[in-house]
Amino acid sequence: MKTYHIFRPLFLLSLFICGINHCKAMNISDDSQDDIPDRLTFGLVGDVKEVQISITDNSDDMVDDPINEEQVMTFDKEGRVTRDIHDCEYVYDTQGRFIKGEKEYTKMVRDKKGRIKSYETRLDDEDAECYCYTYEYDLNGRPTTIGLQLWEGVYTHTFTYSGDNIYPDKLVIEGDEQGDHYTIVTTYEYKAFDKYGNWTERVCNTESRISSEGVEGVTQESMSTLEQREITYYE
Question: Which residues in 110-127 are b (16+ Cβ under 10 Å) and which e?
């Protein structure tokens, strides 16, 4: 049986959501910083230099448009992201402040611990097409909620963890866009880890539901993908 991934764009967004997106310009801090590296926001520990990510379909059904994604992330020696999974590069000054990206306008706010608190990116101050993110963390510094406002929709991403693990067990996305309501639930099965404790292989099982204003019934889809990471470290 062949199927189509009708939720594919939102599913890939759920995979990308912890990545910084298309930034340039303004860096703002709340008081002094403890300079916690960005690696933890991305679910990584250790002196990570580069992460190569492969995402492929893991479904038993034949898919007409199978997912086959390749991504790369890089960090500097201080743990700041220098390239995200969207192939955007980041430049910092000698004080560690973000100074250069791709878009003409970005406002970034970091909390007292140096973690990303919120950011928005658009072509200019009045551009309606924007990505606006807000981050909330638990006491262990792990992202628990990420809010995302797009020009046509609003989404909330909620992560749950087991114990002190830095990688989530489940991600729930709730969102509304142009009269449609989305609920996307992804659970993770971790298959392999490296010697530093970073996962290198996991299966993502996703259940998606969409309801439309004025339309009876709910559209549902299930899908499974395999994610593999090859991680290199600073010596």
Answer: bbeebbbbbbbbbeeeee
- Cα–Cα distance between 73 and 225 in angstroms, integer? 20
**Reduced DSSP (H G I as helix, E B as strand, rest coil) percent helix, strand, coil of the chain, to 5:** 5, 50, 45
Q: What distance in Å separates the CA atoms of residue 209 and residue 216, rounded to the nearest whole number?
A: 13
Phi, psi of 216 (to 5 degrees): -75, 150
Structure-token pair, residue 76: 């500097």
Where is 14: in which H helix or E strand?
helix 8-16
Q: Give the C-alpha separation, 231 to 79, whole Å.
A: 14
- pLDDT given at position 3: 38
* pLDDT of amino acid 163: 92
Taking every pair of C-alpha atoms in the chain, what is the biggest distance, in angstroms? 58
pLDDT along the chain (235 residues), means of 10: 43 48 41 65 92 87 68 90 75 77 68 83 65 88 89 88 93 90 94 95 93 83 92 95
Q: How far apart are CA 23 and CA 201, in angstroms?
A: 29
User: What single letter denotes the amino acid at residue 198?
Assistant: N
Shortest CA distance to 131 belongs to which of 144, 142, 114, 116?
116
CA nearest 220: which of 183, 179, 172?
183
Which amino acid would we find at residue 126?
A: E
Residue 158: its H or E element: strand 153-160
pLDDT attached to residue 50: 97
The two beta strands, 105-110 and 219-233, are unpaired
